[in-house]
Design a protein that fits this description.
The radius of gyration is 19 Å and the shape is globular. It has a domain of 210 residues. It is mainly α. The protein has 11 helices and no strands. This is Probable membrane transporter protein.
Length: 311
């Protein structure tokens, strides 16, 4: 019973972060399952089964608050589902130990860019509103879906920074579109696991506990991301990306850092991240104080729109 309660709390916390920052549900939940000795394939299958429900609830909530770009959902979600099915069916025979640090290095670069760009200059507006093309979204979806299924998480960490770095879509719509399209990825990955594994190693009570926690958090997260100013949200997301991938690199065979070194480095990254968020908060407040209705050049974040029902 204690395990089920813990899993429900993990599901709640992971979905709260994922729904407001566009990542971390799979990574957080998978880490816990692996820590208690769950087989990697079974852990990923358990998470993705739970995500069918949590992503559906999260997508509906984001849609309700106007956080979804359906063109992006369609163009990235379908290739993502294909990549997820392939990743799930090959997980048992595919070693991802080498691929993980390479991917983390690329994501770290994107994370540093997002963190610096939003903290220093606010929301990029030069390309805001320009369409995102299929030749960008389709390969991104394939890679993100494959990484998500093989690693138990990765759809958000791969997709969110790439869309943010493009500067063509508002941060809240990046988060909402990534969360909504993840529903297709979760279904495809779950089907892949069921085809290759059956129900072996999957505890349906664990799935239900994670699902329950996620369902509670989904509407709260979708509401929260609409209220956060884009500049602050971008700094927060960038910090999550950097911290997560620095941790992966430190624990990889490439670095194999000691626990003490990991603690020092991660502590330093956390302090820098916190300072960046504080800087963005202060910059946003200065901008609101000077031009409360329209923002300023230093923080071109649009004024929050009133919550309206979607058309």
């Amino acid at each position: 019973m204690r395990t089920l309660v813990l899993l429900a709390l993990v599901g709640l916390g992971a979905q709260l972060v994922d729904g407001s920052l566009g990542m971390a549900y799979g990574v957080t939940s998978t880490t816990l399952l692996l820590a208690i000795g769950t087989n990697p394939a079974a852990a990923s299958a358990t998470i993705h089964l739970a995500e069918i429900g949590t992503t559906l609830a999260s997508g509906a909530a984001h849609w309700r608050f106007g956080n979804v770009d359906w063109a992006v959902v369609r163009r990235i979600g379908v290739p993502g589902a294909i990549g997820a099915f392939a990743g799930a069916t090959f997980l048992s025979s595919l070693a991802t130990d080498v691929a993980a640090p390479v991917m983390s290095l690329l994501l770290l670069g994107l994370g540093l860019y997002v963190l610096a760009r939003f903290t220093v200059a606010g929301l990029p507006t030069g390309r805001l509103g320009l369409p995102l093309r299929k030749r960008f979204l389709a390969p991104l979806g394939l890679v993100a879906g494959f990484v998500d299924a093989t690693g138990g998480g990765g759809w958000g960490p791969v997709g969110t920074p790439a869309l943010l770095a493009s500067g063509r879509i508002e941060p809240r719509k990046v988060v909402g579109s990534i969360d909504t399209s993840e529903f297709l990825v979760a279904i495809a990955a779950s089907l892949g696991f069921l085809v290759s594994l059956g129900s072996q190693g999957i505890d349906l009570l664990w799935v239900a506990a994670l699902l329950l926690g996620g369902l509670v958090a989904a509407p709260v997260a979708a509401w929260l991301v609409r209220l956060l100013p884009p500049r602050i949200l971008g700094s927060a997301v960038g910090g999550v990306i950097v911290l997560t991938n620095v941790r992966t690199l430190l624990r990889s065979d490439w670095v194999d850092a000691s626990s003490a070194v990991q603690g020092v480095v991660l502590g330093f990254v956390a302090v820098v991240w916190a300072a960046a968020v504080v800087w963005s908060v202060r910059a946003h407040r200065r901008a609101v104080a000077s031009q409360p209705a329209a923002g300023t050049a230093s923080d071109p974040s649009p004024a929050p729109e009133p919550a309206t029902a979607p058309r």
